[in-house]
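Need tokens for this chain, all 202 residues.
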Amino acid sequence: MKIIKSFQDSAKALIMFCAAIAAMYVPQAAYSQDKPFFCGTSYNERIGTRVPTTIARTARGPIPLAQWTSEWATDSGYNPTRRCQEVTDRFNQSYASGVLRYIRTGLVNNLPVICTASVRGGMCPSSTVLITLKKGSDSEAVLKQLLSLRRKVAGKPLEFNSDLYSYKDESAYVNVEVFLNVADTDKSSMVDGDQGSVFYKQ
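Here are the structure tokens for all 202 residues:
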């Protein structure tokens, strides 16, 4: 009986070990396809190459939301890909918490930040901060560069209007829903390490 019990215990341990190993190697596309945002790549016209990008899945297709190219993307020792992955997780958390109606500028602990918000006005809660910038940084300039707000839509410059871009209490706000409704899709966007199709919600 001891031999049988020992065999059973060993078999259970082996099964648990195999399951743990399998979980470590689930492809990025498989576990990200049910999330509204994922870290992939998209073409950046300014530097002429593909860059790590936070991409939104929409009914129209994948839309590049935030491109990670500049020095502020590498603060805290993160390279652009790591920064993309970290902040994309924060986008998904904000979406799940219902606080992703706006992407805005603000201050937290006297440092400039880019955060998400459900309404205009008030402070940036630390729980909604996407990135913290160095003291003295121009957070509005970073917001515009991050979202590539000078991009073209259907061959024309993205139209700035009060529905898309607004101010309140000296903070700049981008309406996420309006942005995703007008921005061009990019079906060439790729999941990190995956050359296949992007999974997005229809």
